[in-house]
Design brief:
Elements (H helix, E strand, L loop, with lengths): L16 H6 L4 H9 L1 H9 L10 E4 L7 E4 L2 E2 L1 H14 L3 E6 L5 E5 H17 L7 E5 L4 H13 L2 E4 L6 H11 L3 E5 L1 E4 L2 E4 L1 H8 L7 E5 L13 E3 L16 E2 L3 E7 L7 E6 L1 H14 L9 E3 L6 H13 L4 E4 L10 H9 L3 E4 L1 H10 L2 H4 L8 E5 L5 H11 L6 E4 L33 E4 L11 E6 L9 E2 L3 H9 L8 E9 L5 E6 L3 E4 L2 E4 H9 L4 E11 L3 E10 L8 H14 L8 E4 L13 H8 L15 H6 L2
Parallel strand pairs: 4-17, 6-7, 6-8, 7-14, 8-11, 11-12, 16-18, 18-19, 19-20, 29-30
Antiparallel strand pairs: 1-2, 3-13, 4-5, 9-10, 14-15, 15-23, 21-22, 22-24, 24-25, 26-27, 28-29
Bound molecules: 5'-O-[(S)-butoxy(hydroxy)phosphoryl]adenosine (WT7).
Pfam families: ACAS_N, AMP-binding, AMP-binding_C
GO cellular component, one term: cytosol
Enzyme class: ligase
Length: about 650
């Protein structure tokens, strides 16, 4: 485990009085949660409209399978759309869409209700019924959000697959969830060019037994192959459908979505989230952590709906709170490195939520770029996805936040569903690089291997020792893996093991240090070492592969691979490496391409045959080798280093 920067931890930034004066959150939140945790969550659930009240806040009798708001019924889409219209806010802009080529569209809540209703009517006409699964493979366009909400409205469980993933990755997710409908686009705009997406969708669905229809939004106008009877254009169906649709309530525990994430073994896990508890925590955290004021703030979360951040902090949390938000389709440097700052200036963005990797990229580009814009609308900044280094934190606050915007460093995971550990703006004094403390209502601890809780100065593993409303309800089709992955490490205590190392500083503030398992964090994306290894070994030239995450200045970690070639394979040098990197892109995604691949004659192994990743990481990061005494043949490193 690496340590955080202790010299930074003493310097706390107290909340500014001006911000505190109007902040949603106050000390009474923590007091209420401390006095009665479940009562506190029941009060938070009142943020939503329920069709049927619940009879019990939490049923934990079948732990680790939780039921929150037992017996309660609600419609998630109604809570995100209809009720704002019914409250008289139908003319408020929900989404300011900014397309990469410069096209724009603003959707009010009235518009959103009509669109979601049209999509819901279309899905019903296609024969889909509550409980069916729908795969979504789309870029950041309003139709993607409309599709998610239409699914929620009908009780269809969506599975969004990041549009940067390959056909192979999409196929395995479609098969695992047995999705009946796939919603996609002809192509997506990337750096000024139309990149095909339907083509990958076709490859993924060819022979996919469960798929009945492929619904296609025309985004770029590029040519596509067409399967009559199966494929449908969005403009021929959804846009022709009736804009009237009445939402039915579903059980609080009705599955809202499945989202696949990398685990320590090769096969991605389908994380299941349900409705009432998830929406409660999404709404509560978006309201308090971002201090969001409906009708005043312009909010922008730069994530993609392919990740959990997009689910919870673009779709469900913000829309449940009646947000006005920016949705941007493209990359930050298209057409120039000014794009994000132009957007902030244009829409008067007041809350900006992004990832440390982008902040470090902005730093590299230089402050003259943001300085060329009026960013005075910004009043709160957020960070998510990986530990933020103190230098990036200070730069973010000084350059983007005019030296005064509070920064919320939010720790959470696909599995937690919503933010768990974060400062509360206006209340918490912040330290550059620290997520500070669990939110009111959330309980977390740092413990050692023997489950002993640690105090100030302690360094160990992060656990969640109480269930929380937005917690995952399991892994799709694999309850055993759910127990093993998260609950077996501290089985006797009944604690959730997050997979992260963390420490308390001398003041008792919490610093998340990063993964302690074989999961890498590349630009805030979770990628397992074994997934990349499997991809490499599936190439005809590779006999064996070992992959490690090595520290990287911009992306947090970079993927470094060591491969042994099969016998009689000729090492063609750069050409081979290029082939292998391309192969990983096809098998998983371009984001999983190794930064560096080294062909080696042998891999360092223990006597029991385990690859010593720790030592490979030393090599990849250019360090002195750690303890090599358990290796079968310490001399392998001479060969590896000789490369
Ligand atoms: C892992 C979860 C939560 C949405 C994005 C990632 C790391 C996340 C922080 C943070 C330090 C963080 C952890 C965690 N992580 N946020 N603020 N400080 N580390 O979701 O793909 O499920 O990854 O991201 O290692 O376990 P995810």
């Amino acid at each position: 485990m690496t340590s955080a920067a202790p010299d930074h931890e003493q310097q706390a930034f107290p909340p500014n009085a001006e911000f505190t004066a109007t902040a949603h959150a106050g000390p009474e939140l923590q007091a209420a949660a401390d006095a009665d945790r479940l009562g506190f969550w029941a009060a938070q659930a009142e943020r939503l409209d329920w069709a049927t009240p619940w009879t019990e806040v939490l049923d934990w009798s079948e732990a680790p399978f939780a039921k929150w708001f037992v017996g309660g019924e609600l419609n998630v889409a109604y809570n995100c759309v209809d009720r704002h219209v019914l409250a008289g806010n139908g003319d408020r802009v929900a989404i300011h869409f900014e397309g990469e080529p410069g096209d724009t569209r603003s959707l009010t809540y009235n518009d959103l209700l009509a669109e979601v209703s049209r999509a819901a009517n279309t899905f019903t006409e296609l024969g889909l019924v509550a409980g069916d699964r729908v795969a979504i493979y789309m870029p950041m366009i309003p139709e993607a959000i409309v599709t998610m909400l239409a699914c929620a409205r009908l009780g269809l469980t969506h599975s969004v697959v990041f549009a940067g993933f390959s056909a192979t990755a999409l196929r395995s997710r479609i098969d695992d969830a047995e999705a009946k409908l796939l919603v996609t686009v002809d192509g997506q705009w990337r750096r000024g060019a139309a990149a095909p997406l339907k083509a990958s969708a076709d490859e993924a669905t060819s022979g996919a037994a469960s798929i009945e229809h492929v619904l296609v939004v025309q985004r770029t106008g590029i040519d596509v192959e067409w399967t009559e009877g199966r494929d449908l254009w969005w403009h021929d169906t959804v846009e022709q459908a009736s804009p009237e649709h009445e939402a039915q309530p579903f059980d609080a525990e009705h599955p809202l979505f499945i989202l696949y994430t990398s685990g320590t073994t090769g096969k991605p896990k389908g994380i299941i989230h349900t409705s009432g508890g998830y929406l409660t925590q999404a709404s509560y955290t978006h309201h308090n952590v971002f201090d969001h004021k409906a009708g005043e703030d312009v909010y922008w979360c730069t994530a993609d709906i392919g990740w959990v951040t997009g689910h919870t902090y673009i779709v469900y949390g913000p829309l449940s709170n009646g947000v006005t938000q920016v949705v941007y389709e493209g990359t930050p440097n298209s057409p120039t490195q000014h794009r994000h700052f132009e957007i902030i200036e244009k829409y008067g963005v007041s809350i900006y939520y992004t990832a440390p990797t982008l902040i470090r990229t902005f730093m590299k580009w230089g402050r003259e770029i943001p300085d060329a814009h009026d960013l005075s609308s910004i009043r709160l900044l957020g960070s998510v996805g990986e530990p933020i280094n103190p230098e990036a934190w200070r730069w973010y606050r000084d350059v983007i936040g005019a030296g005064k915007a509070p920064i919320v460093d939010t720790w959470w995971q696909t599995e937690t569903g919503a933010i768990m550990i974060s400062p509360l703006p206006g209340i918490t004094a912040t330290k550059p690089g620290s997520a500070m403390a669990p939110l009111p209502g959330i309980s977390a601890k740092i413990v050692d291997d023997e489950a002993r809780p640690l105090g100030p100065g302690g360094n160990g593993y992060l656990v969640l020792d109480q269930p929380w409303p937005a917690m995952l309800r399991g892994i799709w089709g694999d309850p055993q893996r759910y127990r093993e992955t998260y609950w077996s490490r501290y089985e006797d205590q009944g604690w959730y093991f997050a997979g992260d190392g963390a420490r308390y500083d001398e003041d008792g503030d919490l610093w998340v240090l990063g993964r302690v398992d074989d999961v890498m964090n590349v630009s805030g994306h979770r990628i397992s070492t074994s997934e990349v290894e499997s991809a490499l070994v599936s190439h005809h030239t590779v006999a064996e592969a070992a992959v490690v995450g090595a520290a990287d200045e911009t992306t947090g970690q970079g993927i470094v691979a060591f491969v042994i070639l099969r016998e009689n394979v000729e090492n063609t040098g750069d050409a081979l490496i290029k082939d292998l990197r391309e192969h990983v892109a096809v098998e998983i995604s371009p984001i999983a391409k190794p930064r560096q691949i080294t062909v080696v004659p042998e891999l360092p192994k223990t006597r029991s045959g385990k690859i010593m990743r720790r030592l490979l990481r030393d090599v990849a990061e250019g360090r002195e080798l750690g303890d090599t005494s358990t290796l079968v043949d310490p001399a392998v490193f001479d060969a590896i280093r000789g490369k």
